[in-house]
């Protein structure tokens, strides 16, 4: 009955026999068979009870080193292993081995079986070096006593392949799996299930190596064998579900989620028909489908299937079983995706509590739990807590996995993110680069995760002002995404956007606009009209137009970004601060200082709620305050804010940032306006010296040259003033549109210097150019236009008098 799968009838017969017999041998046998029955139906607690009853009789009637006792200990070890009670399983397997060592030769085949059993427990406990040691012992015995083509030898090779697969040593895993496969091909019938398993094992390796077509080919071979078996042995139907799951996972990882869902649903249908409603394998199917819906961002569906899986596991498994922890973990991930961080934390904590109790301290699943806890604290901006959990996760992985593990790379990446968020760019770069080096060794050259690493490194270089290195890494990331993503993928838009930003920072506004527009086109086609990534695009395009002095266009895009963010974000979100700063920058350029001040004040109040004192995001806000107060001729306040800005750029990791030089020059400009010319000159020279040691936008150096020229003019060193101003003019004429207001500033400064040296014709030429640009680009009441006109009128009076 057991052999043909009729467990209920077999159990009924054994229970009747038990009532009518009194022989110890018979009772031992029947309890043993009832244990087998219960285990076959995944009723492991009942199985343990029956095996223990059988063992109890044996202990009373047999010598303590009888081999039959070893069989009972093995059976109990197997049941406790299934229950996730690995220490108990290990204890029973060890007892079985000790009996065998006393009664048979140490190299007997019976000992090899025990080594395999104990090795499998160490595998479950993630002690992979111990597992390899024991599996090798078993293999040596099998190779000594059995023909080289014996199935048990093949199984040993396969076991070793499984360990190397687990520790991500895929070349070694493939080597052992393929050695096993050759033996199976020689000794088994073409449609044997072990051959199907062998194809599947090799397929898993190719799957991990991202060779999806090869993996699918091998999984399909395995599936073909199972389908033939299905026709002959209907009770083996559930094995088909496993292979449907494998194929579904390949489609999932290769991005074909619809095809993946089809295969996982086929697996589910088989299991729903063939299994008890509370069978753990049914939970696995619900879990797989939940995972797919999670990838598809259908969080409510994902939660529905994850909760079904969890409900089965809560009913069928012990309270501290690792699979139950997996369910809580998955539910936590959905809540995290739904931004229900407190619910996510609650689920993650449940998973962690089980894993801390049930698993050894260096188990990779514990690392997953610590990592997830870290993610929630990172989202909640509790960075020290996040860092503590991330570091614990990393320490576990460093102990349990090889140094080139993808999981370790992800862990280093997470730690890098925390350091980046607290402005520790040196540390962020260190961890991002370590993660990237591992990924370069373990992933295909065009793997999307590698693109993510390159992008992260580029972001750090960008923030510390190393624009050339930033551009290099952004382009590496973009190259991968162009090859691997479809044309309307939002991740490709992100890539265009980052290159647009760096091009803007380098002063190449035409190229920046081209990339920003490409990003907007993709986002417009791929995203909903209220998606916040659209606001990022509007903001970037607004920046370029503002820098190119197309102020109406700049305001149009800045307002689009602001409206989208105000409609979809909390009032204190940091991205709103960015929008208010952009609007402030526009109003400042247009000479509306009151509106500019109101906007930057809004930004500042939001940033105070989001960032610690000294955070880099405050720098742009302090800089704007300084510019606005300078334009309003409130020089003491302007100086205060420029100094606050400088304090941020004095932090060690920002000392090479190009904005540090500009900030020194801004301070020098205010000091010059306050009449302290020598001191102002020293600040401008300091700014130039800093630029000698940094990568900078040449337009920024033109501003420093303009400030130096104006200071030299006030010091009555007119020839030096004109030299600096001509340098500034040359840069601006090469880099800016001919009607840019920054050109007007330099023309006007030159006009005033030429007036001082009585070169009135040159002065009039430059003054008129300044007025013409200002009339075209600025409002009629703009202070700059009024000043330029006043200079021009004074110059006419001087020329008439002359």
Automatic annotation (TrEMBL):
Keyword entries, A-Z: Repeat, TPR repeat
SMART domains: SEL1, TPR
Keyword Repeat appears in the UniProt entry: yes
Gene3D superfamilies: Tetratricopeptide repeat domain
Pfam family, one: TPR_10
Entry keyword annotation includes Thylakoid: no
TPR repeat windows: 28-61, 70-103, 112-145, 154-187, 196-229, 241-274, 283-316, 325-358, 367-400, 409-442, 451-484, 493-526, 535-568, 577-610, 619-652, 661-694, 702-735, 744-777
Name the UniProt record assigns to this protein: UDP-N-acetylglucosamine--peptide N-acetylglucosaminyltransferase SPINDLY
UniProt source species: Rotaria socialis
């Amino acid at each position: 009955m057991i052999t043909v799968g009729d467990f209920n009838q077999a159990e009924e017969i054994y229970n009747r026999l038990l009532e009518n017999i009194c022989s110890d041998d018979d009772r031992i046998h029947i309890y043993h068979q009832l244990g087998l029955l219960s285990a076959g139906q995944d009723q492991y607690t009942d199985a343990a009870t029956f095996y223990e009853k059988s063992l109890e009789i044996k202990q009373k009637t047999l010598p303590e080193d009888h081999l039959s006792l070893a069989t009972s200990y093995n059976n109990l070890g197997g049941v406790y292993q299934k229950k996730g009670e690995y220490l108990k399983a290990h204890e029973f397997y060890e007892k079985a081995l000790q009996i065998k060592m006393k009664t048979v030769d140490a190299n007997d085949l019976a000992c090899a079986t025990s080594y395999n059993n104990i090795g499998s427990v160490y595998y479950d406990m993630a002690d992979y070096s111990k597992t390899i040691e024991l599996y090798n012992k078993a293999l040596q015995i099998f190779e000594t006593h059995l023909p080289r083509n014996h199935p048990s030898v093949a199984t040993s090779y396969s076991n070793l392949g499984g360990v190397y697969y687990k520790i991500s040593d895929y070349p070694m895993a493939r080597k052992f799996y393929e050695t096993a496969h050759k033996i199976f091909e020689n000794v088994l019938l073409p449609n044997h299930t072990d051959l199907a398993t062998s194809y599947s094992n090799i397929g898993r390796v190719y799957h991990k190596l991202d060779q999806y077509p090869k993996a699918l080919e091998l999984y399909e071979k395995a599936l073909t064998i199972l389908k033939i078996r299905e026709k002959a042995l209907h009770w083996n139907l559930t094995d088909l579900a496993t292979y449907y799951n494998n194929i579904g996972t390949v489609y999932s990882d290769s991005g074909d989620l619809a095809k993946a869902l089809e295969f996982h649903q086929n697996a589910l249908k088989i299991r729903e028909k063939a299994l008890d409603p509370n069978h753990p394998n049914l939970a696995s199917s619900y879990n797989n489908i939940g995972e797919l819906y999670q990838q598809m961002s259908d969080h409510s569906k994902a939660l529905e299937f994850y909760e079904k899986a969890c409900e089965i596991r809560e009913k069928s498994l012990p309270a501290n079983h690792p699979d139950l922890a997996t369910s809580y973990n998955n539910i936590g991930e959905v809540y995290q995706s739904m931004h229900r961080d407190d619910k996510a934390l609650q689920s993650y904590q449940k998973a962690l509590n089980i894993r801390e109790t049930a698993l050894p301290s260096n188990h990779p699943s514990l690392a997953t739990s610590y990592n997830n806890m870290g993610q929630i604290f990172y989202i909640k901006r509790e960075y020290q807590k996040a860092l503590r959990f991330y570091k614990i996760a990393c320490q576990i992985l460093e102990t349990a996995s090889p140094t080139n593990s993808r999981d370790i790379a992800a862990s280093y990446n997470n730690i890098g993110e925390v350091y980046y968020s607290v402005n520790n760019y040196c540390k962020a770069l260190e961890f991002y680069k370590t993660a990237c080096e591992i990924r370069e060794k373990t992933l295909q050259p065009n793997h999307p995760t590698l693109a993510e690493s390159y992008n992260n490194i580029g972001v750090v270089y960008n923030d510390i002002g190393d624009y050339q290195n930033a551009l290099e890494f952004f382009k590496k990331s973009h190259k991968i995404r162009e090859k691997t993503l479809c044309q309307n993928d939002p991740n490709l838009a992100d890539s265009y956007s980052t290159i647009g930003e760096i091009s803007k920072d380098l002063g190449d506004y035409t190229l920046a606009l081209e990339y920003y527009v490409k990003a907007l086109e993709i986002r417009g086609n791929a995203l909903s009209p209220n998606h916040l990534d659209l606001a990022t695009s509007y903001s970037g395009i607004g920046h370029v137009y503002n820098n190119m002095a197309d102020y109406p266009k700049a305001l149009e895009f800045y307002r689009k970004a602001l409206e989208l963010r105000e409609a979809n974000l909390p009032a204190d979100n940091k991205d709103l601060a960015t929008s208010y700063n952009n609007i402030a920058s526009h109003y400042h350029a247009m000479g509306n200082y009151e509106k500019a001040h109101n906007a930057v004040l809004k930004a500042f109040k939001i940033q105070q709620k989001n960032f610690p004192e000294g955070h880099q995001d405050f720098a742009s806000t302090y800089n704007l305050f300084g510019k606005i107060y300078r334009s309003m001729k409130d020089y003491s306040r302007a100086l205060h804010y420029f100094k606050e800005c400088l304090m941020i750029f004095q932090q060690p990791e920002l000392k090479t940032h190009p904005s540090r030089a500009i900030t020194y020059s801004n301070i020098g400009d205010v000091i010059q306006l306050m009449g302290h010319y020598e001191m102002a000159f020293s600040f401008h020279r300091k700014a130039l010296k800093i630029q000698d040691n940094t990568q900078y936008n040449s337009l920024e150096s033109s501003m420093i040259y303009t400030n130096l020229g104006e200071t030299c003019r006030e010091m009555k060193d007119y020839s030096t003033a004109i030299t600096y101003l001509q340098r500034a003019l040359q840069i601006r004429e090469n880099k800016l549109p001919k009607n840019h207001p920054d050109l007007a500033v330099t023309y006007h400064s030159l006009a005033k210097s030429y007036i001082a040296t009585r070169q009135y014709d040159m002065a009039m030429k430059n003054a008129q150019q300044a007025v013409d640009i200002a009339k075209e680009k600025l409002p009629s009441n703009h202070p700059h236009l009024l000043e330029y006109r006043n200079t021009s009128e004074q110059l006419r009076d001087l020329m008439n008098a002359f």
